Please model this.
Amino acid sequence: MLYYLFEYIDKHYHFPGVGVFKYISFRAALAIIFSLMFSFFTGRRLINFLRKKQVGETIRDLGLEGQIEKQGTPTMGGLIILSAILIPTLLLAKLQNVYVILMLITTVWLGLIGFLDDYIKVFKKNKKGLAGKFKVVGQVGLGVIVGSVLYFNDHVVVREKASKADVKLHHGQTLVDDLQNQEGVLFSSTNIKSTITTIPFFKNNEFDYASLLSWMGDNYKKFAWLIFIPVVILIITAVSNGANITDGIDGLAAGSSGIIGLTLAVFAYVSGNTVFANYLNIMYIPNAGELMVFMAAFIGACVGFLWYNAYPAQVFMGDTGSLALGGIIAVFAIAIRKELMIPVICGIFLIENLSVMMQVAYFKYTKKKYGEGRRIFKMSPLHHHYQRLGYHESKIVTRFWIVGIMLAVISIITLKLR
Model:
């Protein structure tokens, strides 16, 4: 909203300095500041309100050190995160941008599902919360919406790369040479609809989902949605649940999400900027740069929430926050066509998810074979395994963050490492 206000002032009154709101980098910086300030100043009030309403976490005794002391800690703190994302984005982003609209829908949609789950746990005193099948239905529903918009909307486009031979100036010199581009790459001026995405670590690093249907004949690209939409649903469900599982000890999910968010913000900025996309020889996605404003608010919200969620936590995010964080990360990665990099970028979420799947599968297998279930880990998810080994949770969280930073660096260098 502020963007449109200052655009109007600049256009009609030419007020000095107002034009700075045109720049994504400036609005992204403001989004982080606004998000942090909102988290700081409203977090305490919300925590006090939740305590007054006795919205406390019911802790299941798993025999972990310091676990019982967490009993009664206010939950549903994800409301702090959601509001700290939505308000700066509404104020500073271009709201007609299809990618920004999708991110807002994702935040509200999964936030509502998580809120309903927490509400049932806290106010209805049902420890199971919202039935898993209803969560999955909600995630699948969002996946259908996101996949359909990204596939069918005319504003979701990319630009193909053009070689030197394809781009000639009237006097015979190539436009690429004229721009002194040593990579020999330039983007076409024509936007195209496509289901191509990025494959990390490969030189020719673009993959088209439609190619999986090439056996259908000449018109196979018309049916690419049969592959693309299910892939979107799978990614959103997996990453959302991964973030939910990771939210088990103080600060782990929020800190990891902030690191992932920073990585995705870098990808969004370079993918939406012709100069950087051209220099790095990566896919150019028109209008994707605006997503940096949203992700800046996301990063600020995660860091601001850590002020109250770091050990010892004064508030838990609950499913209200964790489901939304994972869903936001998934949809954002899909929008900037970096979803195949999620196993690296979201390596913490992946290993947490895998630890649960391995534990359950191995337990069932050994119970069937030997009559007694056996375990790979002392407890799953993985962070609880390390707690069982005697590590303090603050040390576990810090080390997980360090691993997350390493994965973020690896993800970013894939821009040139092929």
